[in-house]
Records
---
Amino acid sequence: MDGSDARGAKRLRLTEALADLVLEEGLDALSLRPAAARLGTSDRMLLYYFGTKAEMLADVLGCVVARFAAHLAGVTRNVRIPPHQMVGFTAELMTSEAGRPYANVWFEIAARAARDDKIFATAAELMAERWNEWIVRSVHFPAGVAPRSAAAMMLAIVNGIILLDSTAPSVAAAARSRVQSAAA
Amino acid sequence: MDGSDARGAKRLRLTEALADLVLEEGLDALSLRPAAARLGTSDRMLLYYFGTKAEMLADVLGCVVARFAAHLAGVTRNVRIPPHQMVGFTAELMTSEAGRPYANVWFEIAARAARDDKIFATAAELMAERWNEWIVRSVHFPAGVAPRSAAAMMLAIVNGIILLDSTAPSVAAAARSRVQSAAA
DNA sequence: GCCGCCTTGTAGCATATGCTACGGCGTGCT
DNA sequence: AGCACGCCGTAGCATATGCTACAAGGCGGC
């Protein structure tokens, strides 16, 4: 019984290891031979366990999204964040050392999703959805506002800030200062 | 005189054509042989005029950024947009048929800039900077607000919205509705 | 012991990619 | 006419990439 499913177990372990790799080096690190070398195996094995690179990619993306959701959930375990602090809080979270890897792959996934790449599109949608749900759960919205819409707005602002933060830090800093004053 | 600089002129024409290509198909379309085929020449010629692929990339990115700035300027020629409409206006602009190509390459550039890719980093910074300057010029900010910071905040929100729009349309729609009500 | 299956290594293939070497063609200058 | 130089095509190289073919080793069941 364990022997029959050992393959699945190993596939999962490989997926986790590949997710580590992607989170610190980006999607380009998923080339079969280099990636396999990092894990101490061969491209031959990756194909054996995943069948095809596309399937491997799908598994790894799913893993990354799951980890991201778990990461978010872990940060706000039993904690509610006041609405006016959520944007700043999340922006800080995503630009911190722990959050940057997720932000970076998020950008890569989103960029490819924008070209009609189905596998990235589904991953991106899932990731954004999870992210938004997390905001809904972590913020206590005042009565009268639609949580999902308000959360989406916050998510958009956070996304914009971290995107600018990765490209034009001075512009991002200007935007952040604005968030500060708005929150006060 | 014209003969001596014919090379530079042709290089510029190639750059423009490559920019067209990139804007409609993405950065991956810049592989030498496929790109050259699209332009009716050979990879040999691209190397001849640009010297190296890296230089070609730099030229094309510069061209794309310049065109983007020109596009923005053209839309608001002699027009000022009220502050409370700028976010919605720009979001609409970038998700329109004319704007999407710019948004898509913007995401690609930003994603690569986030990994320490210098050439993309400089292009991304320039593009964000130009974008922000355009907002500063196109909006008449009330006295007492720092134009650059306010523009940066708007830019962040727009970025977030179009990013979500390309990945999770339903979330983006929720965010947009929020912008509408805030503007009213 | 032997057979069969799961796992894994070694080679190889077909294609793609950036770049180079070499040579031909035409134009303008002397 | 001859010659040099700018332009360009053909081949080729070295490497990378996804994937396949073949075979060897190991392990459990009969």
Note: Residues 3, 6-7, 41-42, 44-45, 48 of chain A lie near DNA strand C (CB under 10 Å from a C1').
---
Amino acid sequence: MEAGESPVIRRFSRIFTLTDDERRWLEAVAGPHRTSSPRRDIIQQGRPIPFVAVVQDGWLFRYKRREDGRRQILSFVLPGDLVGLHRRVVPVGGHALQSITPTRLATMSDTQISALAAEQPRLADAMFRLSALELAMMHEHALRLGRMSARERVAHLLLELWTRLRCTGECTSTRFFFPLTQEMLADALGLSVMHIHRMLRDLQNEELISFEDRRLTLRDTEALAELAEFDPTYLGLRRNFALE
Amino acid sequence: MEAGESPVIRRFSRIFTLTDDERRWLEAVAGPHRTSSPRRDIIQQGRPIPFVAVVQDGWLFRYKRREDGRRQILSFVLPGDLVGLHRRVVPVGGHALQSITPTRLATMSDTQISALAAEQPRLADAMFRLSALELAMMHEHALRLGRMSARERVAHLLLELWTRLRCTGECTSTRFFFPLTQEMLADALGLSVMHIHRMLRDLQNEELISFEDRRLTLRDTEALAELAEFDPTYLGLRRNFALE
DNA sequence: CAAATTGCATAACACACGTTATGGACAATG
DNA sequence: CATTGTCCATAACGTGTGTTATGCAATTTG
């Protein structure tokens, strides 16, 4: 895995070894780039999905909002992830997509997408696999929300984010840039801001994690993984990937 | 929508009008049928996905189990639903599939699946749409688990099941066969059995629902929908489908 | 046909987590 | 450069939901 490659290529490289042709195709597919400042709704709930794109840079999240204002964050979207993939079959999205940091998306035209299956069947498979992975992450998210304690939920989510970042080379140690607010964590994990705060304080006091600046350090990944029963196989990685 | 048709055909008919050719293809695609008695694991967590199939009859659910024995039910699988769709790209499943009632599955061969895109592009699209729907239901499930009260969760799930059953013609009134135990509801909704019991008792006392035999009656669907902010558009149906 | 298990029910008690209130550091804004 | 808002922090208190115990009818099992 070379430095300087786009996150998509690093992402696909995890699935299989890319041929030069496929590599070129992936580099060429990126249509016009769309940039966005932080805290902008890029796709709105109940509105048409405007494009298919690959995240080149930045963090985002998908969320649903209830009439009374309560918000549920469904998933975090990191560099190398795809958005809007279901545009062709479900033109109107049931959830919104919001940027957390400044972001850069590489859009893909509808014609490129529909030509994919015929021209690059292995890449089409890889995309299918990525969308299967998205479902698998939602399954794990349901497990977190339904059957984990607050403490476990926090630890589990932090480990998932760390693992996904390492998977595309966005992170190479146990410290990484962490732009999520406590409110976002609360809305992702089905908890109150107060309680997220308590859990983060506890984990810090126990020296399992620490914050400096806007950076998070996982000080004892094994203890965290045991605490949360974290097993990254659902991310399409082998069991001990997190402990390398 | 005619009686006696297989649930798959009724399901696909909701998406678009099937040609005679497509109808024949769908009827022919059903390979060997697999039947199962209640409470059997048909697919096991961490084991290869043995086949792709359409549910012809019966209720099932997908679930994950934690090391300490706690269980999270991810989704309920009803007649007309597809299972094992990701087999080709993710051979090992991250969750199990269990039958609730006696079930009948119509399996589809791998060659049929891979020929689908070329031979029946509209059916392939419909399947893609069904898998997008599965993701949308997981999103709604996350919303239930993370940001609804126990009372709302119960009402919302009952309405979802009712709507899905009506969608394939399994149910035509507000009363339907309901094989879920309180334990299953608890494990689906992230609650304790005791609390599910409390909520069901309350809803019964308020005459919003009632049970006779193993049949559930929704006595006031509008009140339930308002209570739970239920809006079936995420099921690919128009907003007021539930109130027809 | 016993025996064991499952599903449902009621009650008392416990606690994990939510709510509300308040303040301070910092960043964004006019 | 005030001003406003955001994010984080600490504290006291309230409650929705979990836990444990127990019984009984219906079902499954040997």
Note: Residues 121-147 of chain B form the longest helix (27 residues).
